[in-house]
Amino acid sequence: MEAFASHYSYFVTVLLMAAGLYIMIARGNLVKKLIGLSIFQTSVYLLYIAPGKLIGGTAPIVSQAYQVYSNPLPHVLILTAIVVGIATLALGLAIVVRIREAYGSIEEDEIIAADVGHGDRE
Amino acid sequence: MMAATVLAIIVQRNLFSVVVLAGVYSFLMATVLVALDAVDVAMTEASVGAGISTVLLLGALYLCGGEEAKPLSRPWLPLVVTLVIVAALVYGTLGLPAFSDPQAPIHTHVVPRYLTQALAETGVPNVVTAVLASYRGYDTLGETVVVFTAGIGVIALLRRRRRGKEDGK
Amino acid sequence: MRREPVLRVVGKLLIPYMLVFALYVQFHGDFSPGGGFQAGVITAAAIIFYALIFGLPAARRVVPEAVVEAMVALGVLIYMSVGFAGLALGGNYLDYFVLAHDPVHGQERGIFWVEIGVLVTVSGVMLKIFYVFAGRGRESGGG
After folding, report:
1. Considering only CB atoms, which chain B residues are within 8 Å of A98?
2. CB contacts, 8 Å: A55 with chain B
3. CA C73 distance to own-chain centroid
4. Which whole number is the average pLDDT over C108-112?
5. DSSP string across A11-42
6. Does the ipTM exceed 0.90?
7. By CA distance, what is A37's nearest residue in B?
8. All domains of chain A, ordered by start, with CATH?
9. What DSSP character marks residue A109?
10. pLDDT tens digits, residue range B56-101?
11. N or C terminus: fewer CB in 10 A for chain C?
């Protein structure tokens, strides 16, 4: 039980990761898959930042009044990760818009059926 | 509360409400990040996740249609896969350092140097900005190039010819 | 939405403050949370807000497509030029301490220009993506 209290942040991370993963593999709508991907990414941010926090510390901005700071290195890495995540989301949405214009639908099953039908005819 | 939001996202089929819920989730995540002393990250997550991300998703929904079809009638395989992965991850995270352990490796290698030397070497009190722009400047260059690439990728995918009707170009 | 008086008035009051706040976040990023990325996103959000209230053609008049496309590339160019300036002045690529008369001022100058580069690229890309998404439906009549 003591392990539960000290590792609580990891359990939250794993829960969010599982939710994002489930949305990505169990739902057929492409836009919803992309939202699941972004949920997965935010859980990874939590995975990196939670171990950097020191109880009693403060934000890593150096000043005279504080001595203990939380770890700034994960913040830097995750800042980059957030921006890359939104770049991925934008490109993914652009591809979804093109798929919609080419196939008329953004449901995975309908797109695969249309592709199979088209392939048979060729 | 975040778990409730995520469950609502999974179950909801109206994509417009899913997008709004994703914005709510982003704000909750930003709040959690502030509680973890990650103020720069929280600001970026709030502005990017709840701001720009919502705008882009709404724009895409306007072009694509806003309702999700009925989900699979047999979602057992994805559920089983997810549960197996959850079990494996929980087993793995039990070996990681406990929350807020000052002796954890993350705190002992190069970070004390950043915290003590950043103000003296760069003249910038915000250690995150100093590390981002100076100590790890190459990474930030790479990230800026990634944003640039995403921009030109979207332009390449969705640019229109000004000629009038497009024919699948 | 152009004719709604409440939206127009609120928009005209808020948008200058949003832009000033973006500049504040950018330049105060040395002393408080902030920096190039957040400021770039807030700038893009201010102009998107204007486009939502006053219409896409009005926004295109204020910030033309050519300017946005130039901004996208200009930011990366600024960043790389800081690197090459370090190379030209005697240090390695992206060395800041050679940029001014003493290392600490060189670092500050380097960080300043690098963050400006990031601001320009991020706001340009976010705005361009919005223009592309919003402009597409209008021209094809709803897809």
Report:
1. 157-158
2. 100
3. 12
4. 87
5. HHHHHHHHHHHHHHHH--BHHHHHHHHHHHHH
6. no
7. B22
8. 2-121 (1.10.287.3510)
9. H
10. 888 888 887 766 666 656 678 888 888 888 888 888 888 777 776 6
11. N
